[in-house]
Amino acid sequence: MYLEMIRSKVKKDIVIFLHGTPLRLYRVIPLILVFVILLSYNLHAEEKVLFLDSPTDSAIEKQKVELTCRFYGLDIDHIVVEKNKLSKPLFASLIQGKPGAIIITAEALSNLDKKDISSLFINEMNIKTNILIMGLTDSIGNNNLNSWSFASIEGADKLSDNEEDTFFRISDDETDVARELAGQEFPFKDERMHYFLLAKGSRAQTIMGIRRNGQFFPNFIRLTLAKNEIFFLMNMSSHEFVGKVELQQYSDRFIELAPLLMFLRYSLKDYAWHSIRDYANFTIDDSWLIEPYGFLSYSGLLTEMDKADFHTTIAFIPWNFNRSKPQVVSLFQKAPERFSISIHGNDHDHREFYLYKKLPNGVWPEEALNKQEEKIKQAIARMEQFSKKESIPYDKVMIFPHTIAPEMTLDLLKKYDYWATVNTNNIPLGEDTHQDIEFFMRAVTLQFSNFPSVRRFPAYSLLSFDIARELFLDNPLLLYGHHDYFKNGIKEFNKIATMIKQIQPKVKWHSLGSVAKHLYLERLREEGFYEIFSFSNNILLENVHQKGATFYIRKNELSWPPIKRLLVDNKSYPFEWQGNEILIKVFLLPGESVGIQIEHKNDLDLRTVSVAKNSLRIRALRMLSDFRDLIIARTSIGQAFINMHYKNILVIILSMFIIILFSFSIIAVLLFKKNNNES
Question: What is the pTM (predicted TM-score) of this model?
Answer without folding.
Answer: 0.87
